[in-house]
Amino acid sequence: MFFTTDSMQPAELGRALEERGFESLWVPEHTHIPSSRKTPYPAGGPLIRPYYDIMDPFLALNAAATVTTHLKIGTGIALVTQRDPIVTAKIVSTIDQLSAGRFLFGVGNGWNQDEIENHGTDFASRHKLARERIEAMKAIWTQEEPEYHGEFVNFDKMKQWPKPYQRPHPPVIVGGAFPYAAKRAIRYGDGWIPHADRLEKDGVGLLISKFRQMAVEAGRNPASLPITVFRVPEEIDRLRFCEEAGIDRIVFSLPAQGRDALMPIIDRWAELKHRMGR
């Protein structure tokens, strides 16, 4: 959900989702959208307005967490290439504590070259930068006096609290397409987030099987890398296929609109969930 000043607000939506038994709420991130366009919009055509109207994901998610007790909250995805790792580590720990361990840290490296470069990040080296920032955050979350020394991230021993509520830390779920993002998920993630439309281009079952085989070859237990698929269509057959393929979580998209537009969509998905026995 792209939360904007004109859309249904996070607290209200969070309550509606929890009342209907949904598992989680996910919020994407864009700090801004440059007026220039070095990178085409992946979905094609002009970039839709919610990309630059969107609220900060952590603040929106915390608002939803405050009025719920079971609903998980996730960044879908946080752009770590645009975030200081020391500051972000504290934000993640804080929201995980305030939500009593309900935070899911979806991360990604970004597609918008102009946006990324405005943050002082070289577009070509963003993947290594993101890995170092995530490794550094893990050190901060899990060590009494963490330090990290890499090419892009470098700090000596320090102290930072609070530590996350979840141990050792909230799951780091890596977003992106097969095979490169899948490899990153296996290297330093606790799960993988592909988009349904991209999976279907090469066959969902085939790519899921390849991902799990890659995990085994890298010495990872595939069970430790749950798969979350974004943008699944509102079709019972597709949902059943995802279940049969062993996908662990499916996430549907809501338009950045008000309550009157969203509640019928949410209720249709609640009925689909019921038909799936969930």
TrEMBL record:
<dbReference type="InterPro" id="IPR036661">
    <property type="entry name" value="Luciferase-like_sf"/>
</dbReference>
<feature type="domain" description="Luciferase-like">
    <location>
        <begin position="12"/>
        <end position="231"/>
    </location>
</feature>
<protein>
    <submittedName>
        <fullName>LLM class F420-dependent oxidoreductase</fullName>
    </submittedName>
</protein>
<dbReference type="InterPro" id="IPR050564">
    <property type="entry name" value="F420-G6PD/mer"/>
</dbReference>
<dbReference type="InterPro" id="IPR019921">
    <property type="entry name" value="Lucif-like_OxRdtase_Rv2161c"/>
</dbReference>
<dbReference type="GO" id="GO:0016705">
    <property type="term" value="F:oxidoreductase activity, acting on paired donors, with incorporation or reduction of molecular oxygen"/>
</dbReference>
<dbReference type="Pfam" id="PF00296">
    <property type="entry name" value="Bac_luciferase"/>
</dbReference>
<dbReference type="InterPro" id="IPR011251">
    <property type="entry name" value="Luciferase-like_dom"/>
</dbReference>
